[in-house]
Design a protein that fits this description.
single chain; 114 residues; alpha+beta; 25% helix; globular
Amino acid sequence: MDGRDDNVTFTYSGRIVKWQTLERAKDYETVVVFVEMEGVEHAGYLMRKGDVVIAKGEVAKAVRDAGIEGVEMAVAPPLDTNALIMLRVNRPVKDVIEDVVDIAFGFLRERGFI
């Protein structure tokens, strides 16, 4: 993974994960993170799998609560995207992405999304 790329795709726990840079500044980078999830429908700030619906903001809260060094902000992604989460990081994305994805995957597993 090259943390300076605008679009990086990798595999984590057998699933395709991608981050896309939205903004890069001197001291931070804003990215959206996409995760391959079969059978999941995205509808604005919500995701549905079968009868289970969760807000993408709940995933962001789990990441915020984890207190990952370098993650300044974790929020629901823009409304018009299938991204899982939006992050603002003050370290290279490649240095924090696996911790973020690990927390997100744990949250999604508990709710039967992956």
